[in-house]
Amino acid sequence: MDFLFRKYGFTESEIIFNNDGRLSLEKDPKQLWAESHPEWFPVNINRAEKNMLLRIPGIGPETAKRIMRMRREGRIGSVDDLPVKGKRLEVARRYLVV
Known about the structure:
Elements: H1 2-6, H2 29-36, E1 43-44, H3 50-53, H4 61-73, H5 86-93, E2 96-97
């Protein structure tokens, strides 16, 4: 949770706990938050601010920085162009549009 607060900008009230008051062992806390806030998604990868990129499951602080850098160099044409691969890309893809 410390990482969610310090690196991702989450507040304590945004963290979703299970019925026992614990974090889920089945899903990532960011993914639970995203699933409970469908009004925020999908996010346009070419327009989203860094703080919103950090809310996307599968995208961390370094990836968000790289995306911001890529956008300064030109428009991102596809989700597949992102500096994310494998399972993280498949998770992030569900929350993104170009």
